[in-house]
User: Fold DUF4760 domain-containing protein from Hyphomonas johnsonii MHS-2.
Amino acid sequence: MNLDTIATIANIMASGAVVLTLVFIGLQLRQNSHLTRMAAAQTSAQLLSSNLGRVAENGELAALLVNQQGRDNWTDAEYLRVTNFLSISFRHFEVLHTHRRFGVFEEELWEGSEARLKDSLSNPSIREWWGESRGFYARSFARYVDGLAAQMAAAAAE
Assistant:
């Protein structure tokens, strides 16, 4: 066996090692992507549970949120309570919307979140709040919610 043959065998082995390394990295990336999606879903569930727990534990807040008359019927402290709750809720929806756009949040999970968002927007007081607050959110999310709010307003008018 001469030196050229040994060099050729070494090159083949090195190329094989590179291919195996790339396969391993690909598998690791795939697993990491799956874990990232699962973490996003778990974090979302925890945030939603925590936020909705505020309503379940606080009857006053629940009563304010279902009030159809809105700002004109709330004290300043009640308005602050409601707007802070809604800000937290809609920021959560915004993060989920962004994760969905980038493929981190599963479409199937988004459907449930979207249904909850639509349910919120079915309340005229919340739609009014959204109209005043939309500038605090990402433009893509604001456009998306504007479309949903218009659908909810049209459904309410029927």
Observations:
- The mean pLDDT is 83.
- The chain has one domain: 39-157.
- Residues 101 and 120 are 21 Å apart (CA to CA).
- The radius of gyration is 25 Å.
